[in-house]
């Protein structure tokens, strides 16, 4: 193993004092105008087959901006492979 010169040496950090005194802010503590929140709703059925998802009644609730499902989720450039549960053990891939 190579000798790493910075290991074991103190490093001065800009926010170091704030962090060690407990006064540093977390990302969620900053004010952000027009910030939206998202909630994930999991199925209550442990094994089943989704035939359809009706989101119309939820969209009518005051404050709801959008309901995302597999049918209308926005594309994400850095996440361009098909959805896979990263926490689940490996298994078979079913084509759609």
TrEMBL record:
Domain spans labelled Aldehyde oxidase/xanthine dehydrogenase a/b hammerhead: 21-87
Annotated EC: 1.3.7.9
Keyword vocabulary terms for this entry: Oxidoreductase
Presence of the UniProt keyword Oxidoreductase in the record: yes
Source organism, top-level taxon: Bacteria
Coiled coil stretches, renumbered: none
Protein name per Swiss-Prot or TrEMBL: 4-hydroxybenzoyl-CoA reductase subunit alpha
Gene, per the UniProt record: hcrA_3
């Amino acid at each position: 193993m190579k000798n790493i010169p910075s290991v074991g040496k103190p490093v001065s950090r800009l926010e170091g004092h704030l962090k060690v005194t407990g006064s540093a802010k977390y990302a969620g503590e900053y004010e952000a105008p027009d910030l939206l929140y998202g909630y994930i709703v999991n199925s209550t059925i442990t094994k089943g087959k989704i035939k359809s998802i009706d989101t119309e009644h939820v969209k009518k609730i005051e404050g709801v901006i959008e309901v995302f499902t597999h049918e209308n989720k926005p594309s994400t450039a850095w996440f361009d492979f098909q959805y896979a549960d990263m926490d689940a053990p490996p298994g078979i891939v079913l084509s759609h």
